[in-house]
Automatic annotation (TrEMBL):
Keywords, in A-Z order: Disulfide bond
Keyword Transferase applies: no
Provenance organism: Nephila pilipes
Gene responsible for this protein: CUBN
Protein name: Cubilin
Segments forming domain CUB: 10-131, 147-265
Length: 310
């Protein structure tokens, strides 16, 4: 006799109209979840809001080594919408804590599918947030950009800035701008501490690369090359008191992005340094000559006195 096993279905809907943050868990958490479960957790924000998800506990039944894409084992699957189509971000299985995630728009869905159960597993627990700052802190958001941030030397002379959702995976199809404005005769120095931006140099659309771009203007500055991959860029210095950094991701792959240090430093003209160095050399030479003449004068005087006494 053929028996059709229908998975136990469950799920929840979370709206930013109701709450901007909260938690969600697998069924029965922290007790073992049932087998043959299919749950859908839907998140819906508004406007510029993005969904940010951080797993705080993750323990799924895994009878063997994780298969490719966690197929045919208990797993959590995360989806976003790109150009009206449902796209998978990733699947997660086993007991390794997934990276922090962020949607590319105001919605995201998490699906939980089980085939087995075990008295030794707890399932998962996660925190969700609807955010408008893209997980980028310590900066003033630019009102003229969807994802734009202003750094002014009048506020702070140095600090850090990151890609969206750092140190988690940055969201797909996202473009963020970082504007640095120093005082007159100041320069902006950028030093990258961490760098993981999916792509292949020279980071063009032909290679479907995400990238970080630099400019001394609000428009494109063609003399500074784009950067992508895992190799950290060298220290970058602006030509003037304004500098722009742009991060752009496409719809294909992910990375953890970057963390960088910015500093506003006074500009020192090399010509001025050269003049000071030259004047110092001349002054030192003149002082040495004066001391030599003084010594010779004293020596001659001493010899003459000795001769007179004789």
């Amino acid at each position: 006799m053929f028996v059709l096993i229908v998975p136990f279905t469950c799920g929840q809907e979370f709206s930013s109209d109701v709450s901007k943050n909260g938690t969600f868990t697998s069924p029965n958490y922290p007790e073992p979840y049932p087998e043959d479960v299919y749950c859908v957790y839907s998140f819906m924000g508004r406007g510029k809001e993005r969904v940010q998800i951080q797993f705080t506990d993750f323990d799924l039944h895994l009878p063997h080594e994780p298969p490719r894409d966690c197929d045919s084992v208990d797993a959590v699957m995360v989806f976003i919408t790109i150009n009206g189509q449902k796209e998978r971000v990733d699947n997660f299985c086993g007991n390794k804590l997934p990276a922090q995630l962020m949607s590319n728009g105001p919605s995201m869905s998490v699906e939980f599918r089980t085939y087995h159960s075990s008295p030794e597993v707890k399932g998962f627990r996660a925190i969700y947030k609807f955010v408008t700052d893209f997980g980028i802190y310590a900066a003033r958001q630019d009102s003229g950009s969807v994802c734009g941030f202003n750094f002014n030397s009048d506020d702070r002379s140095n600090g850090t800035f990151t890609s969206p959702n750092f140190p988690g995976l940055y969201p797909r199809n996202t473009e963020c701008h970082y504007f640095f404005k120093g005082k007159p005769k100041e320069r902006v120095h950028i030093t990258f501490n961490k760098f993981d931006v999916d792509g292949i140099p020279p980071c063009t659309t032909d290679t479907a690369s995400d990238y970080v771009e630099f400019s001394n203007f609000r428009t494109v500055d063609r003399k500074i090359p784009r950067h992508c991959g895992v190799k950290k860029p060298k220290v970058i210095e602006s030509d003037g008191d304004f500098f722009r950094v742009t991060f752009k991701s496409n719809a294909k792959f992910d990375g953890t992005g970057f963390e960088a240090l910015y500093q506003f430093k006074p500009y020192i003209d090399p010509a001025t340094v050269k003049r000071i160095s030259s004047n110092s050399t001349v002054s030192t030479s003149s002082d040495t000559t004066d001391r030599t003449y003084t010594f010779l004068f004293m020596l001659v005087s001493l010899v003459m006195m000795l001769m007179i006494n004789v």
